[in-house]
Each structure stands twice: as structure tokens, then as C-alpha cells.
From TrEMBL:
Pfam families, sorted: Cadherin
Source organism per UniProt: Gasterosteus aculeatus aculeatus (three-spined stickleback)
Keyword Signal tagged: yes
Localization of this protein: Cell membrane
Name the UniProt record assigns to this protein: Cadherin-12
Spans through the membrane: 599-620
Source species taxonomy: Eukaryota, Metazoa, Chordata, Craniata, Vertebrata
A molecular-function term among this protein's GO annotations: beta-catenin binding
Leader sequence segment: 1-18
Length: 697
């Protein structure tokens, strides 16, 4: 019976070796009989599990299996040791081992565990405990680090090429025995061309010979360490080394005084001092300094400092190390208060020579011109070349230059630049009608010193192509008088085009050729970018038809020529003499509101009736209250009177008055009760009878 552990993913299967042991028994004949009893022995290899496992499920490690396990669940497997039950769990039935947590090799590199198989019913051990090791397999999750950085180093000036300066060493917490996770390669990010680094050892050496401390004393070098043997995807770390050139005796003694001035010195600022000795005191020792040679006076100036009696040398013009590396100044010092009694002693002035050495300073790249103007045609596909900007390193080492676009500007959406060549291309088609000019800023930096930047503005003009058809310039209705005559000009129209003058200001006009001849109007091209609408018949009537539509085809003179069709609306209106429009606005209002004239009159009548009812109702409510039953005696008081005037002769002619004088004819008089307008009482009387006539009703 044996306990077998199999690891199927990362773990090689353990070896089970049965080693026979010899038991000897002496026989009667003196021979020895050897009995072989099998003895079980375990030899375990190292097993591996991957660190930093981030999967949603527990990581499978391996499987325990006993020879006595028949698959009926009678065997129970248990684990003990490092992380058992917390990090590593086992399925008691199947013997599968899983890692439930993400492991970190840098915290714990391996785990010692014990495996055992027990009888589930009796809890007796079917196998003795077996020890095995699970080793955490490394992944590249730690970048190289320089624990001792930043560094300070020195090297003598004028050292030979390849002189060792300092060795830097980076450490990587990953496993150096597995893969390339901890295999580090060194490179230099900043400090070329003065220094170099050995990619394997990290030793920094001088890359130029004869580096002069008097010209430049301090250098900053940035070293990068990258694991995975420098391959893509490796992690990296960097450190800074400040290197100072120490002095050696490389300059013989010289009597003339000298100054070191970096080429980056600002104009107008002091760059050094010089002093002439005068043993007198007070005002007798005052000295006025001046530069007497043109080479020095053109670039430098000198002033006297009264308290210290020194001459302060200042810069008048910018310095350029690449153009001129040194200047010689002849300086004269003269007493300002000369006592004539001692003129025989001399001129009371002296001259000295001051040598100024210009120091080289790492300068930002310089563009060939201060402002670039480029152009590109609209609608050109993305990737079209626009132009090239050029910058160079003004320093003597002439480092390569990289180009960038300012990411803060909107131009990044439309343009991109090649880092190496400075070639600007479009990223998408441009539309001149949206934006005819684009302003972008190009930045340039040295490859060795990316912190030094220079900027240049670039203006890109979008050139026009004929991509917009012309159209009639107005959308307003054209007024046609009812009295228009054949051949009369109704209106002159013009066209507009979004394209520029070259393509958008030469127009021709015509009626659509595919439509039948318009019987009402025609069009005349005036050949001056205008066209006249002309009536073809007389006597238009707005009651018969008040609206006409006239499509007009406009063609421009571009290459290729484009055309567009605009439809004008012509409204017929009554006009007074001289063509002055009458009533068109009101009718236009009704038309725009969607109401006919009859509908409007009906609405107004309804409003008047409603107002009359309201006035009548208010009047009746204010009238005096009276009983609803009218007595016979009050009939005469209920006569309704009217103040309407007669029509005069028209009334006498319209009616036969003789009929009214006939006593046989009876007049019906209807009386309205003031409190109830719906109760009507009528009486019938003759014209000449009184109100008390017996026949009155």
C-alpha cells in the first residue's frame, strides 16, 4: 500500500521507489537463504506554484492518491504544515490540492507540507506522513532598484577616454535563478556624449577625452536598469549620478586676469569684477574704469563700484560658445581726482588685460526659422504631408533632435508629427468652410537632454477646393403684382457660394431643362452674377392662385463646376400704381396662420355675439326687480320705446302708410317684461284706438 501524490499543472509527478531489503537465513548445508521483503521509500522533487495568481478560482496545485483508495470514499486525505487549511486546502475525498490565496515569492519562497491518508471509518493511518515542498514560482513583478542612489562621483579633468568613474548596481527582488526576471541590463538616459555605461556591469566611464573643468565642471548622468535582459516588457528603474570634474594642473600661471562666463549669461547682468590697487585714501583713490579696445567694448561694458573701488564687468550682447570661445578686454583705470601738483609723476592711470573665456552650455534646439506657414488642400485624406520643420542642436556635439506637438492645443486633433524628421501630416480630412486656418505649436528637444525644449509656431492654411454648390441668396417670397405685364421684370436674384472667390463668384442661371416650359415666368441670365425673373403673361389674380413656385438652377465657375437648384416662392398681390404692394402682408399673415377669409369672419361674428350676450345679461341684472305677473293696469307702462331714427323719405317710400290708417287693420304690440325677457304679452289694436279698446288683447 502506498500514498501517491500527483501534481498535474506545475508539479512533476513524485517518484515512488521501492527499495528491497535483504533478510538472510543460514541453512543446514551452510548456505544462506536470502528473503526479500519490500520496503517503501519516497523521493520527492520540488513542486512549483505560480505567484500572484489573480484568477477567479483557486489555483490547482496537485493530487493525493493512495493505492488503497478504491474510489468508494473510504479514504480521507489530510494536509498539515505551512499554510495547510489557510493557503492550501485539500479535498478529503478526491485528494485535490488548491491554493486559495495569491502568493508572493518575495515574502515566502517555499512551503513545507505533510500529506497523509486515513481510513474514513476507523481514522487509522493508511500511509505514514509524507513530507513535500511547494516552491512559489517567480514572475516579473518587481522593477530593479538602486538602493544607494542618487550618487555623487568625481573624475579628474582631462582624463583619457574610457576612464572608470563609478559602478552602480541595481537589485531586483525577483528570482535570479528562474528566467530573466532578475537579469538586469544598464543603459544611459542622460549624460551623453560625455559618459557611457557598461550594460552588464554598470560601470560608468568617460566617453570624451580632454574634458576641461575650466569650461564645464558639473555633469548630471541618469542611468537606467531594466530587467528581462532589456527586452520589451521588462520593468525598469533609474538613478542619478552627479559627476564633478576635479582640477589638474593643466593651466600655466598667467599674469593677465581672466574670467569664465557661460554662454547662457543674461544681457545686462554682471559677469565678473576687476580691481586696480591704489594706495591713496578717500576720494584720492577713486578709480574710473573703461574698456578701450573695440573687441571688448562691443560685447561688454564696465562700471565703477564706489564702495569697493572695483570695476564691474557686464554683458552687452548674448554670447555664443560655438561662434566665439574667448574675448580679450583692455581695461583702463584712471583716478577721478587728479592733483595737478603731482602731474610730473605720470598720467595717474594704468591698463590691464582681462581674458574672458566663454563656457559651453547645453542649449535647447534652434529652429531654422521663427514662424512656419504651410498649406494643405481641404478634403485631402488623413496622412497627407503638410510640411517639415527643422531644428538643430546649437552645441558643438550636434545631438539628434526629436519633435513633438503641444498636446494642450486643439491642433493635435488634426495633425501629427514624425518625431525624427519633423514631417507634419494630417490625421483627418480638413474642411476650409469650418476652419480655414489652424495654429499649432511644435516643440523640439535633444535626445540626450529631453528637459531642454524649444517652441515654434506653425500656421497651416487650408486651401479651397470647389466642394459646395451655389444657391440663391434669398429665402424670402417674391412679390408678383396682379397687374404685371408680359416681359416685365418681377425681381432680380443673386447667388451665394461657401467656396472662396476663385471658385464661388462666377455664376450662371437657368431654369431646369427637364421640366416643361413654365407658362407664367421665365428667367434671364444677366451674365453679371445676377438673373432676372420675367413675367410671361398678364393679369395674375391672387383669388384664383396666389402662390407659384419657380425652381432655378445655379452653376458656379469652379473646377469641377457644381450646380444647385433653389426653389423660389412667388406670391401674387394686388398692387397700387407704381408697383406699390397693397394688402399682401395681411393676406400673408392669414396664409401663414392657415385661416381663410371666411373662417376669420365667422370667428369675428362669434366673438361679437358673445359680447352682446354678456352686455345684455349684465344690463338685465342691474334692472329693477318686479313681479313676474303683469296686471292689466300696467300694460301701458310696459311699452318698449326705441330711439332709432327713421329713414326719412326712404321709409315712406318703402312702406304703404295708408294701410296703417285703416281702422280695420289691427296692430300687434308685443310687450316684454323687464324681469323676464322670455315672457311676452301681445295685444292687438287698431291704429286709431286707444289702449283701453275692448278688443285689446
Amino acid at each position: 500500500m502506498s500514498l501517491l501524490i500527483t501534481l498535474t499543472v506545475f508539479l512533476p509527478a513524485p517518484l515512488i521507489i521501492h527499495v528491497p531489503s535483504k533478510n538472510q537465513t543460514k541453512l543446514a548445508n551452510g548456505e544462506t537463504e536470502v528473503h526479500h521483503r519490500p520496503k517503501r521509500g519516497w523521493i520527492w522533487n520540488q513542486f512549483f506554484v505560480l505567484e500572484e495568481h489573480l484568477g477567479p478560482e483557486a489555483q490547482y496545485v496537485g493530487k493525493l492518491h493512495s493505492n488503497s483508495d478504491k474510489g468508494d470514499g473510504s479514504v480521507r486525505y489530510i494536509l498539515s504544515g505551512d499554510g495547510a487549511g489557510t493557503i492550501f486546502i485539500i479535498d478529503e475525498v478526491t485528494g485535490d490540492i488548491h491554493a486559495t490565496k495569491s502568493l508572493d515569492r518575495e515574502r515566502k519562497a517555499h512551503y513545507v507540507l505533510h500529506a497523509q491518508a486515513l481510513d474514513r471509518n476507523t481514522e487509522d493511518a493508511l500511509e505514514p506522513k509524507s513530507e513535500f515542498i511547494i516552491k512559489v514560482q517567480d514572475i516579473n513583478d518587481n522593477p530593479p532598484k538602486f538602493p544607494d542612489g542618487p550618487f555623487v562621483a568625481t573624475v579628474p579633468e582631462m582624463s583619457e577616454l574610457g576612464t572608470s568613474v563609478l559602478q552602480v548596481t541595481a537589485s531586483d527582488a525577483d528570482d535570479p535563478t528562474y528566467g530573466n526576471s532578475a537579469r538586469i541590463v544598464y543603459s544611459i538616459l542622460q549624460g551623453q556624449p560625455y559618459f557611457s555605461v557598461d550594460p552588464k556591469t554598470g560601470i560608468i566611464r568617460t566617453a570624451l577625452s580632454d574634458m576641461d573643468r575650466e569650461a564645464r565642471e558639473h555633469y548630471t548622468v541618469v542611468i537606467q536598469a531594466k530587467d528581462m535582459a532589456g527586452q520589451v516588457g521588462g520593468l525598469s528603474g533609474s538613478t542619478t549620478i552627479n559627476i564633478t570634474l576635479t582640477d589638474v594642473n593643466d593651466n600655466p600661471p598667467m599674469f593677465p586676469q581672466s574670467l569664465y562666463v557661460p554662454e547662457s549669461a543674461q544681457v545686462g547682468k554682471p559677469v565678473g569684477k576687476i580691481k586696480a590697487n591704489d594706495e591713496d585714501l578717500g576720494v584720492n583713490a577713486d578709480i574710473k574704469y573703461s574698456i578701450i579696445n573695440s573687441e571688448g567694448a562691443n560685447t561688454f561694458s564696465i562700471s565703477s563700484e564706489r564702495d569697493t573701488r572695483e570695476g564691474v564687468v557686464s554683458l552687452k550682447k548674448p554670447l555664443n560658445y560655438e561662434r566665439k570661445k574667448s574675448y580679450t578686454l583692455h581695461i583702463e583705470g584712471t583716478n577721478t581726482h587728479v592733483d595737478p601738483r603731482f602731474s610730473y609723476l605720470g598720467s595717474f592711470k594704468d591698463t590691464a588685460t582681462l581674458k574672458i573665456t566663454v563656457g559651453d552650455v547645453d542649449e535647447a534646439p534652434v529652429f531654422s526659422i521663427d514662424h512656419y506657414i504651410m498649406d494643405v488642400y481641404e478634403n485631402s485624406p488623413g496622412g497627407t504631408e503638410v510640411g517639415v520643420v527643422t531644428a538643430r542642436d546649437p552645441d558643438s556635439r550636434n545631438s539628434p533632435v526629436r519633435y513633438y506637438l503641444d498636446s494642450k492645443e486643439e491642433g493635435m486633433r488634426y495633425f501629427r508629427i514624425d518625431e525624427g524628421s519633423g514631417l507634419i501630416r494630417t490625421t483627418r480630412p480638413l474642411d476650409r468652410e469650418d476652419a480655414s486656418w489652424h495654429n499649432i505649436t511644435v516643440m523640439a528637444s535633444e535626445v540626450d537632454s529631453p528637459s531642454l525644449l524649444s517652441h515654434v509656431p506653425v500656421t497651416v492654411q487650408v486651401l479651397d477646393v470647389n466642394d459646395n454648390p451655389p444657391e440663391i441668396a434669398t429665402d424670402e417670397e417674391v412679390i408678383v403684382c396682379e397687374s404685371s405685364r408680359p416681359g416685365q421684370v418681377i425681381q432680380t436674384v443673386t447667388a451665394v457660394d461657401k467656396d472662396d472667390f476663385a471658385n464661388g463668384q462666377r455664376f450662371s442661371f437657368a431654369l431646369p431643362s427637364l421640366l416643361p416650359v413654365n407658362p407664367n415666368f421665365t428667367l434671364k441670365d444677366n451674365e453679371d452674377n445676377t438673373a432676372s425673373i420675367i413675367a410671361r403673361r398678364r393679369r395674375f389674380n391672387h383669388l384664383t392662385q396666389d402662390l407659384y413656385e419657380l425652381p432655378i438652377v445655379v452653376r458656379d465657375g469652379g473646377e469641377p463646376s457644381l450646380s444647385g437648384t433653389s426653389t423660389l416662392t412667388l406670391r401674387v398681390c394686388p398692387c397700387q400704381s407704381h408697383g406699390r404692394v397693397r394688402m399682401c402682408q395681411g393676406e400673408a399673415f392669414l396664409s401663414s396662420a392657415g385661416l381663410s377669409t371666411g373662417a376669420l369672419i365667422a370667428i369675428l361674428l362669434c366673438i361679437v355675439i358673445l359680447l352682446a350676450i354678456v352686455v345684455l345679461f349684465i344690463t338685465l341684472r342691474r334692472s329693477k326687480k318686479e313681479p313676474l305677473i303683469i296686471s292689466e293696469e300696467d300694460i301701458r307702462e310696459n311699452v318698449v320705446t326705441y330711439d332709432d331714427e327713421g329713414g326719412g323719405e326712404e321709409d315712406t317710400e318703402a312702406f304703404d302708410i295708408i294701410a296703417l290708417r285703416n281702422p280695420k287693420n289691427k296692430l300687434y304690440i308685443c310687450l316684454l317684461h323687464p324681469r323676464s325677457p322670455f315672457l311676452v304679452r301681445c295685444c292687438m289694436k287698431g291704429v286709431h284706438d286707444s289702449m283701453n279698446h275692448p278688443d285689446a288683447q
